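Database export, one record per block. Field names are fixed; values are copied verbatim from the stored entry.
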Amino acid sequence: LVSVSEAMLADGPAAVVFVQDLSETVRQRNDLQRERDRATQYLQIARALLIKLDVQGTVVLVNERACEVLGYAEHELLGRNWFDTFRLPGEVAEAKALFAEVMSGARPYIEYHESQALTRSAELRCIAWRNGLRLDEQGRIDGLLSSGEDITERRRADAELHALAAQLEQRV
């Protein structure tokens, strides 16, 4: 592929033509799109929730699985504050304060943790999160990237097993 441009001079069009070979640019763009498609496919297979928050806790990236679990469309989540949207009202202030300390570098981030997320339908889902700080070009913290697994059913099954075990102990 080539790009052709005609130069304009003060007294009208010139016979000068600029030709630029765009083959390498197009190839690189296609390679990048294939890599993006492959990464998206891997994330969908893994069934992982993927969310990126900026330093204020605003959702700046979210994948299809996260939207599915949380009950929102992507365009509804982007730009929302994570804590205002997905934490129980009594937990918001404390969670925001902790997050602000992590984003300022005053507190180390927690690589793995489990927390509850309030869905659009007001259901609490237990999510196991793996977190990584994101840094800008100058090495400053510019957000948090989190990959999550919905472990709600596993936690419910564990609770039922514990209850049954307690009942058995009482009978013995």
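Remark 1: The first strand starts at residue 2 and ends at 9.
Remark 2: The two ends are 81 Å apart (CA to CA).
End of record.
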